[in-house]
Amino acid sequence: MDLLLNPLRGSFLLPRVRFRNFQTYGNRKVEYGFGAVLMEIIVGRPAYQNGEDGALTQWVSSMFGNGEIGRIVDPKLEGDFDVNSVKEALNIAFACLSYNSNDRPTMGEVLLKLKLCLQMETARLAIGYGR
User: Fold this and answer.
1) Phi-psi region of 130 (alpha: psi -120 to 50; beta: other; left: phi over 0)
2) Which domain of life is it from (predicted)?
């Protein structure tokens, strides 16, 4: 099933994104779409690729469960990130992608948690802490 993040189908701003096994979007459509985009940004790969619905989410979930955060994050970052910040951001993405819309955080809650991620990363950079 397709979720249009932008009413202008295929626009250059936010293109059409496909998600796995999702029959109804419930009340929190925006949160679901945001979770998918957040995961794509963290990983540096599209959520839907080569006809594989949900492959990215499953792969990230597996790696996350094994504690392999370094293998999940976009390789362009070359390991230069706060692991705890990434873990929190991934937890946010997973919460937004919850099948049950009532289990998804509000965008206000998402914003507060992302601010925490930013604070962790800013603190790491301020003290010159590397990988």
Assistant:
1) beta
2) Eukaryota
Residue 11 structure tokens: 């626009």
Phi-psi label, residue 106: left if phi above 0, alpha if psi -120 to 50, beta otherwise? beta
How confident is the model over 14-58, as pLDDT tens digits? 344 444 444 444 567 889 899 999 999 999 988 776 656 568 888
Token pair of 42 as six digits = 């963290």
Q: Which residue's entry shows tokens 């794509």?
A: 40
CA distance linking residue 86 with residue 69, whole number of Å: 8
Spatial separation of the C-alpha atoms in residues 44 and 76, rounded to whole Å: 8
Per cent of the chain over pLDDT 90 is 55
Q: End-to-end CA distance of the chain: give it in Å, rounded.
A: 39
Topology (CATH) of 2-126: Transferase(Phosphotransferase); domain 1 (1.10.510)
Domain positions in the chain: 2-126
